[in-house]
Amino acid sequence: MKKFSLLAAAAVTSVSLTGIAKAADLPQRPTYKAAPIAAPMMYNWSGFYLGANGGYGWSNQCIDVTAINGIGGIFAEGCNSKGGGIIGGQFGYRWQAGQLVYGLEAQGDWANLRNSRASLQNPANTFKSTLNGLGLFTGQIGYAANEALFYVKGGAAVGSQNFALINNVTGTGLAFANRTRWGGVVGVGFEYGFSPNWTAGIEYDYLWRVNESNTFPTPSLGPIASITTNTKTDANLLALRVNYKFGY
Length: 248
Known about the structure:
By secondary structure, this protein is mostly beta strands.
């Protein structure tokens, strides 16, 4: 009986070891790992860009006659605001650090900002001026929310301005001048990158110039050989912009 029990135990042990060996020979169940979540691509605002702009501008001009034939006196001629179209281009460079974007830009525009007013001292005469060219040289700082960029800018502005005094009855020009005048500019804008290389946006700029005094010869005014005026011109620009950004 004891011999039979030992044989039975040996048989059970053999079967168990055989099952374990077969189980060890089976291939292991593969383990699966979740695919990594791709980080969203951030829009790259760094690089050189070249573009075009167009829109509308309006200027406010004030004139005071401060001397006639060199004899001083203040004759206020008042202020007037008029508008017109602008069109031009810009180029610059931006570099991005995180969500902050820094830039430098030069912009040039043809303008048609005409302004006129009848003289308060002599209503038979009209002061006319045209701001026909603008240049902006600015620095920028902005905040990028992926494809969207909000920025502010500021720097120097230069304008080409024609000035004339016209007799309303005869149409005779009594005084003419052309001046290139410097001032300052501040602005704010929004730009959106609708492809890796193309962006579009809108921008508002305010240009100002300090008072400037000029003396104009007036040979057609008979005894009045010259007049001296103090002028001040401010301009507001609202423009749509399209840029091509080089690189990716």
